[in-house]
Amino acid sequence: MSNQKGSVNIALVVIIVILLGTVGYFAFVKKSEPTQQSNSTVTPSQDINTANTTRTNTKATWKETTYDQFKNLAEWKIDENLSDWRLIDLDRNKLDQYSKGIIFQMSKSFNETGFPGPDVNQQLEKADSDQRALENAVKKVLSDNDWKFVVGPSEGGFYHDYLYVKDNHPLILQIGTRDVVTGGMIVLIEFQY
After folding, report:
1. pLDDT at 184
2. 34 SS3 class
3. 28-32, 53-57, 65-69: lowest mean pLDDT where?
4. Residues 123-132: what's their mean pLDDT?
5. Which helix (H) or strand (E) holds 24?
6. Is 171 helix (H, G, I), strand (E, B) or coil?
7. How far apart are CA 43 and CA 98, in angstroms?
8. N or C: which end of the chain has fewer CB within 10 A?
9. Eight-state DSSP code of residue 61
10. Confidence check: pLDDT of 146 > 50
């Protein structure tokens, strides 16, 4: 009988240890899963929120947005912080309805000082072709980015101003076609910011 009592005690201890181990295992696994789940859930949402915050905080200014539309079309000469428009044949009254601002100007010259040498005609043809290509590229960007044409030149001449508007912001496209000797072939864009 005492052998049976000892065996029952050992069996009882083994069953209690197995029960405690099973309960402890399930308790540990259940506690670990939510912690791991919440950590993996929090990290991506934090990354998403950080990314959204970064995009929101780095919103481009009007000047950057407008300049970015044209910057890759040519090697522009840039003049910033100008206080007045450089107009040739556009009536200044056309700009009076728009708010005033600082002017950003970008220009590309094709024969700044004329063409020297015996191959003047070849140089002029190349410059004329390059200028027309840039003029067409600028007009395409204006059209693709919802700039609305308002008014252009009213008479012939070497220089012409074209007024475009977007979101009540004016932009002037100026095209200059001077002669071979004196230079003056230019594409110029100016806008307020």
Report:
1. 82
2. helix
3. 53-57
4. 90
5. helix 2-57
6. strand
7. 48
8. N
9. P
10. yes
Q: CA–CA separation, 140 vs 151, rounded Å? A: 17
Place of tokens 């056309």: 94
- Asked if 187 contacts 135 with a C-beta cutoff of 8 angstroms, the reply is yes
Cβ contact 70:106 at 8 Å: yes
Token look-up 């980015």 returns 145
The domain ranges of the chain are 1-59, 62-192
pLDDT at 181: 62
The label of the residue with tokens 């910033």 reads 80
Tally of CB atoms within 10 A around 182: 10
> Which of 111, 99, 109, 110 minimizes the C-alpha distance to 78?
109
User: What torsion, rounded to 10 degrees, do the Cα atoms 30, 32, 35, 37 define?
Assistant: -80
In the predicted model, what is the mean pLDDT of residues 189-193? 94
11-45 tens-digit pLDDT:
777 788 787 777 777 776 666 554 444 444 444 44
Whole-model pTM?
0.66
C-beta of residue 151 within 8 angstroms of C-beta of residue 132:
no
